[in-house]
Write a structure and sequence with these properties.
The chain is an all-alpha fold and 91 residues long. Helices cover 78% and strands 0% of the residues.
Length: 91
């Protein structure tokens, strides 16, 4: 049986680093999912080659986003805006 004076020591800096990593990964992952949806819409618009190029670019921007935290998600966000503008011009 544990004594009444035992305390659980929590490593708060490690906890905060883990939380920040989770938030950064969530940002990059969410933007990557949106980029996949844009690529799928290019396929639906009969621009398959453009969809393949957009998907390869998404893989590169996701890698960059995970490597350069905490602001790495901006690269994927720029790709998303360019993809949406391309969809508007092709429609």
């Amino acid at each position: 049986m544990a004594s009444k004076n035992s305390e659980t020591v929590m490593d708060y800096p490690a906890h905060e680093r883990t939380y920040e990593g989770f938030i950064d990964f969530s940002k990059v992952g969410s933007i990557s999912c949106l980029n996949i949806l844009v690529a799928l819409s290019y396929v639906n618009m009969d621009h398959g080659i453009l969809a393949i190029l957009f998907t390869v670019a998404m893989l590169i921007t996701t890698t960059i986003g995970l490597a350069f935290r905490p602001g790495g998600y901006v690269v994927g966000l720029v790709q998303l805006v360019i993809g949406l503008l391309g969809m508007a011009l092709l429609a």
